[in-house]
Design goal:
The complex is a heterotrimer of chains A (94), B (348) and C (363). With 348 residues, chain B is of the alpha+beta class. Chain B has 9 helices and 14 strands. Chain B has a 7-stranded mixed β-sheet. In chain B, strand 13 (324-327) and strand 14 form a beta hairpin. Residues 1-13 of chain B have low confidence and may be disordered. In chain C, the strands form 2 sheets. A 6-stranded mixed β-sheet of chain C has the order 4-3-5-6-11-10, sandwiched between helices. In chain C, strands 2-1-7-8-9 form a 5-stranded parallel β-sheet. In chain C, helix 12 (223-238) links the parallel strand 8 and strand 9. The chains are: A alpha+beta (94), B alpha+beta (348), C alpha/beta (363).
Amino acid sequence: MCLGIPGKVVEIFDENGLIMGNIDYAGTINKACLEYVSDIEVGQYTVVHAGFGISIIDEDEAMKTYETWGEFVKASAEEGLDIFGNPLKDKNIE
Amino acid sequence: MNIENLTCPLPIMDHDTIQLAHGAGGKLSSDLIDTLFLPRFSNKTLEAMEDQAVLDFQGERLSFSTDTFVVDPIFFPGGNIGELAINGTVNDVAMCGAEPLYLSVAFILEEGFPMEDLHQILISMENAANNAGVTIVTGDTKVVNKGSCDKIFINTTGIGVLNHDLNISSGNLQIGDRIIVSGTLADHGMAVMTSRKGLSFQTQVKSDTAPLNGLVKNMLNVSHGIHSMRDPTRGGAATTLNEFAKSSQVGISLIDNTIPVKPNVKGACEVLGIDPLYVANEGKLIAVVTENDAPIILETMKNHEFGKDAVIIGEVVAEHPGIVTMKTSLGANRIVDMPVGEQLPRIC
Amino acid sequence: MMKYLDEFRDPEIAKQILSEIHKTVTRPWVIMEICGGQTHSIIRNGIDQVLPKEIELVHGPGCPVCVTPLEIIDKAIEIAGRPNVIFTSFGDMLRVPGSNKDLFMVKSEGGDVRTVYSPLEALTIAKENPDKEIVFFAVGFETTAPGNAMAIHQAAKEGIINFSELVSHVLVPPAMEVLLSSPENRVQGYLAAGHVCTVMGLDEYDPIAKKYSVPIVATGFEPIDVLEGIFMVVKQLEENRHEVENQYLRSVQKEGNRTAQELIAEIYEVSNRKWRGIGEIPMSGLTVREKYKSFNAEEKFSVDDIQTEEPELCISGVILQGLNKPNECPAFGKECTPTTPLGATMVSSEGACSAYYKYQRID
């Protein structure tokens, strides 16, 4: 329903009394309104929907999700089995 | 619940007037060609539905193609409408494996168009023609009332010669062939999109406009195992691949994560919710080649400045004829369909 | 590499979660993803194809383009066709058919219809064109409401009087209740929409989870998010728990975005809304408050006389309620395609039918 893409705040400025920011999406910069994430600092990531930052990304929580499952993958790989319990074969054909 | 008894809101089935989507290279465009143009002008060459006509003429095989350029904005990062008009027709002529030689250029200019802009456009056309090794041998200029066209429209028509007897066409895909794309996708379309007002972009993607005849020549020098080639402009790679699959009545199977897209182009696509496979390119080609020759052709492409990011993105399969699928990284298969019309920023 | 996006598309991790789902599930479950963005991600990545056969995903009504009622589209078309108007909209709304035409056709007839990325861009257009009336088509769920509220707030602050919004805002929880209280309901667990929850928080889902005994998991949009959300719902179902949980921890806070909630409440009030294909749902939408009525396009352009009745039986409604799959519709892929959409679910690229058509026509 609502396309929201994470981008990195690279600049914060005032425009007509609104907190605005330039947001970097892998090298493309797009402007967004940061009034709803007014505590955000340059270098932090925000989820942007239709030109508005709606949250500051919680880096610790993001890492947790990723790392927890990453550990599982590593453990399975060390057992020499893929996640379905089948022996690891040619991983290139994905 | 018995859904047979249900009806939907009334559709808009037919358009009484031309809509933008009729020119966007997707389904409405092909409907227009199939129902209005083809029945009137029908002949064997036209029915091949290639981007160029291959003509037998006194023992020579000629490649003949025309294209009209109406881009907005006319100056965009990485190029302008003039350069685009030269490279676009050069590429269309070259995609059957021909060497482009001569071009005609016709301008439609809007009253009040700045002379300085025209001058700049002509300089880049001169340079583009030199770079592609083609000569502009005839032309025309018309000026129309303010508002009767948008600044400048350019038509170019090109002629080239085929120095081989191969049949490089969209109907010639063979089961087992490999699909090679010559580089990153979506650069040109996103260059135009990120230059448009109303979309909040602060930096622009650079267009990939480039002549591909040199690349094609090198490819033909190392292999005659090229079955099809096309430059995926309007409608993007997805449109070209669907046209290939339909013309040849074969399936095409792509592999997700092999599709090359520049990071900043991907960023712009994500922001607008647009799939790079549906976005226009102006300096890329898709080649369908035999499995045997794929490595040498790929190697040759990578040694050329306009093919250095070339990569194999899929293969031709016997299953699902006429349909393009993509194997997702989870191992599932999904359809890569023709686009409907213009790519719209998907915000919601 | 896009940070916080590409990591959550990692196929190895996705497969790991998938295998946990396979291990956890013991019997059939019906799960609805509410949000069209999640539907898109599921179909695009083929998640539904690799889930255990016990799990059936049904696609919910979370696509603002799909549920915007015919009547509002007709009003938009009427306003956009007026000579002094610049009509601004998110891209997707332009192709949605009203009773007779869509906004693209208004454009081809000479109407000034423009795509904007942000409602603030519409304000900029208003400032650049003081002699024109600029109307913004303010559709969307709770996620889009803060931006649309800000546009009116800012217009009032700057005294921009030639700006107004045609509002068709809808709210998720009332729609969930309608689906859950239907005698035909089959849904046993929900993936709540991560970005709606980012704005509104999780509290309004607690009573629903309790009353209807359904697990509700606020879920993100990338494959790993969707799979983890499904895993969390399945785990609850298997353990006979019915709680509100949060998968999308990197963006959703329990209390949501308070600043955004406050401005939404300042500009809009909760009201009854028609949903295309479902009908009127009490207190399921937002309307511009009396205080800001000069920014309400429906008042400004007096289009109240336009009243379009929805066709009584529309399969898109059945699909939006998750009772049938798009490819079970007799018109699917035949009379009804994205070029010739019969219903809203085919029109929007986020609509369930459109997603099916794009990605899933081979068996």
